[in-house]
Amino acid sequence: MTTDLPDDVLLVTREGPVTIATLNRPHRRNALTRDLRDALQAFFEERRRDSDCRVVILRGAGDHFCVGLDIVAVTEGDSMIDDLDRGDWALTDLLRAMRACPQPIIVLANGSVAGGGLVFALTADIILANESAFFCTAFINLGLSGTELGVSWRLQRTLGLSLARELVFTAGRLDATCALAQGLVSRVVPDADLEAAGLAMAQQIANATQDALRLTKRNLDLALQSPTVETAYELEERAQMRRASTGILKTALSDFAARHGKR
């Protein structure tokens, strides 16, 4: 099944319980316009009530994931820049919708992952990269602050203070090998294998129940914001009690015993 959103800027396909959203502006290296932003917003909001989807893959068409703001489109009248003058509230709403999306989000990082593209990758749950991928903040090159849309919060927690601040101040590039070594991405694969690797991981994750995935994602997010491990203990215990109350644990134990010939 394929659904084309406005102007085909975002293509949505299904592979069983896996939903794949493709940024579809390869002629502009999937640079961000108002239409693409609005399409992404609608997509992630729809996933909140999508009972058939267990995992989301976010990818870019062509050789690049996303280079951030489409400066050419802005110079030609795209109204995206008007919102920036009043604050990034619309883009922030999009990022909130990504985190509120109950399904784990896997970003397939290929080619340039810059500016807003880097923000999308950081807002996802898992980043898989191909060997050609590189990461860059880019904001400071436009005369803006080097930190925007949560980059100061996410990048320093991911890379550590020194490297995160070097990238922000210099707008330097972090290649895939360094990104893997620093923990920004979970895996680097050959260019031709990226989609297959992403789909295989998504299908493996989709073996879990939808409620288990939702509770796990929620607890991981809350743990990052919790001041003590005691809070994590409590949140995780409540999630386990909720799942155990469905009888799923007893069923899993019975299945395990049957597979191993035990009564």
UniProtKB/TrEMBL annotation:
The keyword Isomerase applies. Coiled coil: none annotated. Keywords: Isomerase. Signal peptide: none annotated. The keyword DNA-binding does not apply. InterPro entries: ClpP/crotonase-like_dom_sf, Enoyl-CoA_hydra/iso. GO terms for molecular function: isomerase activity. Gene3D superfamilies: 2-enoyl-CoA Hydratase, Chain A, domain 1. Belongs to the enoyl-CoA hydratase/isomerase family. This is Enoyl-CoA hydratase/isomerase family protein. It comes from Sphingomonas cavernae. The lineage of its organism: Bacteria, Pseudomonadati, Pseudomonadota, Alphaproteobacteria, Sphingomonadales.
